[in-house]
Amino acid sequence: PALTDPPYLQGLNAPQRDAVLTTEGPVLILAGAGTGKTRALTSRLAHIIVTRLAWPSEVLAVTFTNKAAREMRHRMGAMLGDMVEGMPFLGTFHAIAARMLRKHAGLVGLQSNFNILDTDDQLRLLKQVQAEAGIEEKRWPAKGLAGLIDKWKNRGSRPDQLLPGDGRDYADGKAPALYARYQERLVQLNACDFGDLLLHMLTIFQQHPDVLSEYQRRFKYILVDEYQDTNVSQYLWLRLLAQERKNIACVGDDDQSIYSWRGAEVANILRFEKDFPGAKVIRLEQNYRSTPHILGAAGGLIGKNSGRLGKTLWTDRTHGDQVKVTGVWDGPEEARLVGDAAERLQRQGASLNDLAILVRAQFQTREFEDRFIAIGLPYKIVGGFRFYERAEIRDALAYFRVVVSPSDGLAFERIVNLPKRGLGDKAMAALHTLARVRDVPLSTAAAMLIETDELTPAARRSLATFVADLARWRGQLESLSHQDLARVIIEESGMVAMYQAQRSVEADGRLENLTELTRAMDEYESMQAFLEHVSLVMDNDQGDEAEYITIMTLHAAKGLEFDHVFLVGWEEGVFPSQRALDEGGNASLEEERRLAYVGITRAKKAATIFHAANRRIYGQWTSSIPSRFVSELPPDHVEVTTTMSGGPSLWRAALGSGQDPFADVGRATGRGPGWARATTVGTSGLPGRGPVLEARASAVSVGMKGRSDVSVGSRVFHSKFGYGAVTSIEGNKLEIEFEKAGAKRVLDSFVEVV
Ligand code: ATP
Ligand code: MG
């Protein structure tokens, strides 16, 4: 049939063709990663339009991200040429819902030019609503309420539809009333939040049968990608819209459901056949994306999850390397090796665009950014800000800047009321006027102003406290190490308390980022040197590079593919995340495992997993243990290496054989098994982290350079600090009195005995 096939059918396998050509009736395409689900869905869309089954405006096609929508539009354009003059209903749920709501806004009391609030606006409004109800923001942060409301909206619940007990834990059960009031206020403001877009349209569908049937008739065909990550509200939407014609095709993979924390329910897949009796279920089993080893590794890993629908995946490829698992010494080394690998691949003719680094949490990007800037490797952070551009980081940096240079007015302005110190517009105006009149920096003006009665007593008190804080921190510039001072400032400024009070998912990330910031400082001599580095980094405009390596979270990588994928930070507490470990249940761990599956299956040619033996957490060196996911990978598909002496056997052993994991090191280095020893200690006692099992190398560490015998009193050389004498040894950390640089704590692997 190949000769007569239209272009959009060419090359498709039999079940894919089936998925394209079965246009009438409900279809569920259930298949593993890389089997061409998205491709089949795109071809189906092309087929429907080319054969005039429907006009472009009569198809509802839902993608998970705007990027995916653009891609689908682009592919359609390539297939159909001018025929696709825009498709109004191709996009994300939110984009499509917003478009519809403009038309029907009146039905929910809005005008068609309603505003869509961003999260900041939303919080401001929630705070007002709380204040009005006399609920203390300190005790019940608005962020918490925002989270609850979001959850309800994802679930399709309006205030009058909440269940008994909903929100009981918040503000003595007042959350439902606050939710109702918030919705009222939104209408008064002619505004809605993100969750409302879907919920309002759902309400309209439910309460206005005429509108519903208009859309039911209009949408001759409905297509949904990444169906496993739809939430209840989206699911109800689809069910209503498809009820009339029932021409709905959903594609999904239960193993790639990774958004349950945002209300997604994988159960929607299971319900499909019930809601649409007679649905045709199509399974795609041939994977076109990855090599056999990549598939084998991913398959073995996801096999550890329970309650899966179960799918077969095969490929007719024969070549390809095993998935590499590399144990490295620490984070900087991880970044260095990824950078080296990228440059090597580039020399071999690969484009940087085919390379991606996938992280579990945003804070992990920092080490890579610093390294790539140092070696001039263009990179792009997708779906997030570059590390030093994130709000909380800029806030903390502003504190450091004011401490280091009191005349930095911009920085002063940024933080004078952050966290909130009750300094309103009046106080700020007085401050600015004084600074202008006396021609002094804002911080000097502040010191002067508190001696006067210009401000209200409350404002004066809090400004005085702030001025005193700054003075104290400045005094500590000499007495504390710059990392310690940074931690003191972050803590004492109230930033930590502010984020802790928010108890939201993002707040956790922000705290992690702040910790990462202090970690980054270790590589610099002083606060001043560090700030200088940061301004250089921030100035580093890589916006218009044509080729760059992508850094993104595993979540953002869903649906995408790259030739070479670097999966970094596979350590307990990083991935699986500490949050998942703390929750303790199997459900969160299984979701992390699905995330790992998504990560590995992004790779077309090669996947490399890294785990570091040491991470600096809260400024302390902590030995980390490899992620359990590493040991769950089927050995046949994996090649284990380590940059450390001792070789792969060290890590194999560390993965739970019960032997002394460091015994091999001694053997490999010819020093006998007692040379290095591992002890397992209990709770790490780190603030804010649950029990972390630490495999801690004791007595002697496994240094990259293969350490020489250091003892107290040894004279050593360090490439940055020069010559010095060891004054004490604690595990792998040495206190050294350097002849020029003074007392420093360094890692033994960075010194040589002379
Ligand atoms: P994911 O679960 O990760 O979203 P998917 O099932 O949507 O994956 P696609 O992204 O559609 O998979 O396809 C994966 C890769 O395989 C793409 O590069 C695609 O072009 C290619 N591909 C899909 N079907 C075929 C086919 N029949 N012949 C050759 N290549 C194909
Ligand atoms: Mg896809």
Automatic annotation (TrEMBL):
InterPro entries, A to Z: DExx_box_DNA_helicase_dom_sf (IPR013986), DNA_helicase_UvrD-like_C (IPR014017), DNA_helicase_UvrD/REP (IPR000212), P-loop_NTPase (IPR027417), UvrD-like_ATP-bd (IPR014016)
Membrane found in the keyword field: no
Domain UvrD-like helicase C-terminal residue range list: 292-559
Enzyme class label: isomerase
CDD domains the UniProt entry points to: DEXQc_UvrD, SF1_C_UvrD
Domain UvrD-like helicase ATP-binding per the UniProt entry, residue ranges: 10-291
Molecular function, one GO term: ATP hydrolysis activity
Pfam families reported for this sequence: UvrD-helicase, UvrD_C
GO CC field: cytosol; DNA helicase complex
E.C. code: 5.6.2.4
SUPFAM superfamilies with a match to the protein in the record: P-loop containing nucleoside triphosphate hydrolases
Coiled-coil segments: none
Superkingdom per UniProt: Bacteria
UniProt similarity note: Belongs to the helicase family. UvrD subfamily.
Name of the protein in question: DNA 3'-5' helicase
